[in-house]
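Example 3.2
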Amino acid sequence: MPGPNKFLIVRTDRLGDVLLTTPVSSALRDAYPEAQISWLVRPYTAPILEHNPDVDQVLVDRGGSVSDLIALLKKERFDVAVVAYPHWRTNWALWRAGVPMRIGPASKWYSLLFTHKIWQHRSEGKKHEADYNLELLAPLGVKFRRYPTRFVLTQEEKQIARRTLESHRVSFSKPIVILHPGSGGSSARWPLTHFMRLGDQLQMEGCDVVVTGGPGENYQNIMIDQMHRVPVFIAAGSVSLRELGAIYSCANLVVTNSTGPLHLAVALGVPTVSVYSPIPTCHPQRWGPYPAYVEKDDRHKVFIAPMRGENGGEMEDMAAISVQEVQGAGQAALKQIRL
């Protein structure tokens, strides 16, 4: 397909959001195999895109002056910008940099700065976030098609992760289950007490359990004090994002909430069990494992908590999803691996 030579994908928010935008890179690579595909992201998420064959260049927005961002974009002379996460700062910079074709959702007042606006109602959660992202390619004539999310590790990174776990007395002779009790503040969480009971039961069943945390998520001391069998802890901040991904690649199962590390596990092909809030902005219909949730992939089991209350006081009851339910789903996933 002839056309533009330099594309920029803009996604300056969080880990899971960037991973759920990687299908856009894959779609552009298929449609324009000779084009250069660049990304604009935050410093924290930039490592996600390393070694991805569908990404040629990663630009980092460190939040400095808008004039610096404009200068950076102007220097690159992009033909097309696909903005999956609109923000007045980046929209303004792309316009001032003179990017000829600027595509994005028509959801904010500063969407007026786009040359091509796609009407989407993401807050209603009627489609998956990755599907919304892929729809932005329609003005380029790219036919909608789902691609898996992508996070590419080197063999050396995997070997280092294995040695890290071995140093924590993980023998690799048992199934490895990673529990990630946090959510990064993006949604309601399954109770920590449920994670602790699950961790105890999994260890009693002969699994090695590893607990990970994100920035600011310090539940390690509580779990050490209250669990009967202390699991392995990979403390928040003790490993880089790529090191965390490599550790996830060693797992046979990941159990977590709706959060970035869930999508990290999915991109690496690791089976997952996750617990979601039922409200539209957090529902798995928009944020579930991709494309597993929309295509009914049995390797990824999703539980949706019920709403409780009445007369306008309804709240999601995350505790209503029992440990037994999650444990049963985990056992089924591990049984498939053993066969």
